[in-house]
């Protein structure tokens, strides 16, 4: 995986985490929390994309768009999961 691809995935993950936090206000972790979890989700989304055999090397329009999608979706999904877990824990306490 190239550094450019990784950076695109991480930035897209942060954006995806913040978008999900904005849409799902009850699960939001705050701007910083959404960004951190989104970055982690973006990295995981990229790893999963590579594991599925999708080419993430090279810098062309297809790989950049694929990396953006994987990062954004991964960031949004992980932020939602972490937010739901946090919400469930706070309700049971």
Order of helices and strands: HHH
The beta-strand count equals: 0
Q: What oligomeric arrangement do these chains adopt?
A: single chain
Overall form: elongated
Number of DSSP helical runs: 3
Separation of termini? 42 Å
Average pLDDT confidence is: 89
How much of the sequence lies in strands comes to: under 5%
Defining traits:
93 residues, mainly alpha, 0% strand
List the helices and strands and how they pair.
Layout: H1 3-23, H2 30-51, H3 61-92
What would your notes on this structure say?
The chain is mainly alpha-helical and about 90 residues long. It has a domain at about 1-25 and about 30-50 and about 65-80. It is about 80% helix and about 0% strand. The chain has 3 helices and no strands. Helix 1 packs across helix 3 and helix 2 (about 30-50) crosses helix 3.
State the gist of this model:
The protein is 81% helix and 0% strand. The chain is an all-alpha fold. The longest helix has 32 residues, at 61-92.
């Amino acid at each position: 995986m190239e550094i450019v691809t990784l950076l695109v995935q991480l930035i897209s993950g942060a954006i995806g985490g913040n978008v999900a936090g904005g849409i799902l206000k009850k699960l939001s972790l705050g701007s910083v929390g959404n960004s951190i979890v989104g970055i982690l989700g973006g990295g995981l989304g990229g790893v999963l994309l590579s594991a599925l055999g999708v080419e993430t090397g090279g810098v062309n329009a297809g790989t950049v768009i694929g990396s953006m999608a994987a990062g954004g979706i991964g960031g949004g999904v992980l932020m939602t999961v972490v937010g739901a877990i946090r919400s469930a824990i706070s309700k049971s306490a």
